[in-house]
Amino acid sequence: MKRTLLIILCILQICICRAQSTITFTPTWTPQAQFAGYYAAIEKGFFKSEGVNVRIKHLKVGSKKTPCDMLIDGECDIVCISLLSAIQMRDKGLKLVNVLQTSQNTGLMCVSTHRLSDIKHLNGKTVGTWKTGYREIAEFAFKENNIDIDWIPFLQGVNLFVAKAVDATLGYSYNEYIQLVMAKGNIPKSNCIYFSDIGYNFPEEGIYVTEDYYKKHYNEIVKFVRACKKGWNYCRSNPDDALKIVMKYTRMNNIATNPYHQRLMLKEVLRLQQDYSSAAAHKDDISTFAPVSKMTFGKAVKQMQKIGLINDEIKYDDMIRIIKD
Question: Coil, helix or strand for 119?
Answer without folding.
Answer: helix
